[in-house]
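Message: Just now I want nothing more than another pair of eyes on a protein record. I am handing you a single protein, as its sequence and its fold in token form. As I understand it, each token names a local backbone shape. Take your time, and here it is.
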Amino acid sequence: MEAGTSDISVIIPYYNRERYIDEAVQSVLAQTLKPLEIIIVNDCSRASSRQYLDRYADVCKIVDLPVNVGLAGARNAGVEHARGEFIAFLDDDDVWLPEKLEVQRKYMDDHPDCAIVHTAAFLLCGDGTEKYYKRFWPPPMTLAQALMNSFWAIVQSTLIRREVFRSVLFDPNFRECEDREFIIRCCAAGYRVEGIDQPLIRLRREGQDGLTRKHWRIFRTDLRMGWKHRAHYMRAYGVRGIATFVLEKLQHPSGTIPFIGGALRRFLYLTSPPYRVKRGYKDPVPTKEQPLPTPGAFQYNDSVRRQFLMTQATSDISVIIPFYNRETYIDEAVQSVLAQTLKPLEIIIVNDCSKESSRRYLDRYADVCKIVDLPKNVGLAGCRNAGIAVARGKFIALLDDDDIWLPKKLEVQYRYILEHPECAGVHSAVWLILSSWPDCQWKKFEPGPMPLSQALTHGQWVVPSTLMIRTEAMRALGGFDRWYRESEDRDFLIRCCAAGYHMEGIDEPLIRFRRTGHEHLAGNPWRMYLSHSKVFWKHRALYYRAFGVRGSLSWFLESAYIVLGGVIRDREFRTKTDSKYGNAVMWRLHKYLPATYKVRTGYEDPVRVENLAVEDYVGQAG
């Protein structure tokens, strides 16, 4: 990356430190990799100190805060004004070594799964000496480690992907320990925090005596932090871990009390209270290294890939793509996401225990996608659930590995769902891709929110690859039912409507829905019929409440006619089990015993038409 062309925003909080700010800014200007911008956030300094910053007006962007908010608030203000894909923090009295940004940016390129990279440091002592300082072990830092006193990520040494700040910001309620509290929440969110042993910054310890005289104030802040994250401590270490944390933090303030400090240190030494992780604890930070992209990989439409990598995500949408031995189509699926006019927050490919050659094919996407490998094959429902479990966006967009999105798919649906706060999910019409016919437009829904009474019939359907749904609603429903290998989409739609969620459709076709190569589905009519029957049996109470016995009979007749009778006449869907006699019998039954669904008198549909926000009824799904 050439000088002056990087994508890094440098943020320097400033408060009455004109004595040191020159060295700090000069260390940034001297970087071998020039940053995109330098932002100095003036935290309501005195007037004379603020005037000192005017000398940097031509090389830095200066943000003035009306009130003093502390380091946490100043850093957050800098993030709001930053334009870079990466954020680097530097305090106004510290100094970077010249290669700091270059080394870290290269590390990020080599480790696409890393969200935050920090480094060791040189401590500048009052006597002019320097000491090597490092409090971390081989990466990544787990949440269990971040909760301990032995692990520390120096925020002034960090380089952070901007996407992290979409879900985690510094807590302005902490005037001290805000850096540690920030790292704990990053690890709790599943972000990988990795460290470089090379010291790349100089931390000034000179003139920091004021902090050492505030032992009890810092101890109270530590207690607040421990209380805020008490659930994490209990989950990882139990009561013993919380006691260990409090006792270790008590060492410094108790040192000023005769006998107490020494007794506490001896107690900690004799009891050897290292944090013992509870049996069965599962850390949110994945420790398995993702495969790195091989040279020359991802050659297909590589310009789109580079644009996606260098373009800041413009939404909070997580895209989930289940994958199972479909290397023939996966290129088109992923490229259709990369080419979206509204960039998603992340792309998650869930490998459903594909064969080894198919799994290796996914390595070309390791730099732009998060790949989740499942130990055994669980089907579409289980795959989607695995992707939902690790998704970080506020919205989930589903795409099967053989379908294709049109470029404006996310933009159109995102705008629609923001304009309709009562809408939990939005889907669309599709273009059907057929082998022997031109693409044709297809939809099976009516305008407005889909009532449960319609979702129970065969006349309404949502194509999963068109669906964008709020993450809170998806998780409240528990995702898809893994009991279904087929018809899991129909079961999910019924449960959405039964919970009162508004599922609304857009008439505009936004995806290309592939129907070629699906002969195996039509070749298993009994399997499809059984899955339909399983859906009915699971929701039999809903059918009876809406339609009574007649509706149940209608549903069975229509299912048999659709699945066994071969309503779709195209040759690519015809199977050996179809016969003119079978078709004739099913057609006459369907004609003379009408499969019309008549809603019972007094039936109240759970999908209400009032413009309620999603949070008003999200609890119903629980």
Residues 540-563 form the longest helix (24 residues). The two ends are 50 Å apart (CA to CA). The first strand starts at residue 8 and ends at 14. The CA atoms of residues 395 and 471 lie 5 Å apart.
